[in-house]
Amino acid sequence: MSGATIEALELKSQMDDPLRACVHCGLCLEVCPTYKLTGEEGNSPRGRLHLWRSIDEKRLPEDDDTDFYTSECVGCLACESVCPANVPYAHLLEKERLRQYERGRSKTDWKVRLAGRAVKQPSLFNLALTPARLLRRSNLLPHPMLFPGKPPVMESSAAYAKRLMAQKQPDGPTVALLTGCLMEALFREINFATIRVLIENNVRVLIPDSQGCCGAFHEHTGMPGTDKLFENNRTAFRGINVDRVVTNSAGCGLALSKALQNKPKVQDIFGFLGELGPKQRPRQEGTQKVYVDLPCHLVHGQKVEGIPPNVLNATGYDWELAPCAKDCCGSGGVYNIQKPENAREILKRKSDFLNHLPSGVQPILATANHVCMMQWHTARAFIKSPFQVKHIIQLLDPAL
Ligand code: SF4
Ligand code: SF4
């Protein structure tokens, strides 16, 4: 057998075994937020892959060190976007975290574990967070992550969509909307804005009652239960006849697309609106300017280039991409709860541009994921002048 054939076979066997597919090129180091924070190889994608491989080959024991470096990863997936060997990093990370959890080695915070159990029961979760919706509605915000907003307290997104559909009677394409667990329970005004924008654009909106948590929470933390949640959503979304399933949260969209596997196709709301050509909002005169940040799970997870420019133009605002828009903000699902110091430092570096804007500019930081919005809201601690945090769908909302 020739040397070239042996090399080709070795390469094939590496590719058949994702844990051994890394070619050690180091291209992922410069995009990794935890490597940039610490400069430690163990805190880089390449280093973590090496650790997991060493454990797998029994050359290293599972110990506090290896647990630590696995837990330090934000899960931003920026490493996947630059990897020439197509290492399926997200899949390996999820597998490793699940393994840690099952062996009792996970250091997941008890509040996070409790939340993981609660989101499996969406109606109870919704009920439990009614006081929090009330507090947001009254502008009494005791938690630094709760950005201001006026969520409806009692009417559900499903009931609202039915009511608005009956009033407006759109007759264009039909979509099913994933309302999400945290989004519906706490940030419901974003779901309502999404429904208004879709219906205004002549889209028929269905909200399957039996839908549940997308499973992203469990994937991030390693908590078991993702398979069941995926199966539940397959039953909920495959039982209806729609042109698309749309999501307004990048992280949930990624998890749902894994669950449904294109049956039917899952698309981020902005990709869908971009293809449709959204209705134009009036031009916003004044000094407000929108800085668009791109959620990691949209660009690195769903592999979407960004928010279509026709959608951003349709907001009527002056806009530009935030500097380092494709870099992680530190949110990482529940990373900002589990690793608050790291999350804060990552955001501090990324948001510093807001401290250096021309005087008179009133910035709106707009993104496409409620969890990133919560993280950006905490930047008030180190940004000198006021700024607003919005979901991009809110800038297209006819109710504004
Ligand atoms: S997912 Fe993000 S934080 Fe984790 S190793 Fe990859 S680039 Fe680094
Ligand atoms: S970019 Fe991919 S192949 Fe290169 S070191 Fe990182 S994980 Fe390995």
Key phrases:
disordered N terminus; 48% helix; Rossmann fold; four-stranded parallel β-sheet; binds iron/sulfur cluster; Fumarate Reductase Iron-sulfur Protein, Chain B, domain 2; 400 residues
Describe the protein in words.
The protein has helices spanning 3-16, 33-38, 45-56, 64-72, 78-82, 89-102, 110-118, 122-128, 130-137, 157-168, 182-186, 188-200, 216-221, 226-238, 250-260, 269-276, 296-301, 309-314, 335-338, 340-351, 370-377, 392-395, and strands at residues 174-178, 204-206, 244-247, 266-268, 288-292, 318-321, 362-367, 388-391. It has a 4-stranded parallel beta sheet with strand order 2-1-3-4, sandwiched between helices. A 4-stranded parallel beta sheet has the order 6-5-7-8. Helices cover 48% and strands 8% of the residues. 46% of the residues are buried. It is an alpha/beta fold and 400 residues long. It has 3 domains: 3-102, Fumarate Reductase Iron-sulfur Protein, Chain B, domain 2 (Orthogonal Bundle); 113-276, Rossmann fold (3-Layer(aba) Sandwich), CATH 3.40.50; 288-395. The radius of gyration is 22 Å and the shape is globular. Helix 10 packs parallel to helix 12 (188-200) and helix 14 packs across helix 15 (250-260). Residues 31-34, 45, 48, 73-79, 89 line the site of one iron/sulfur cluster (SF4).
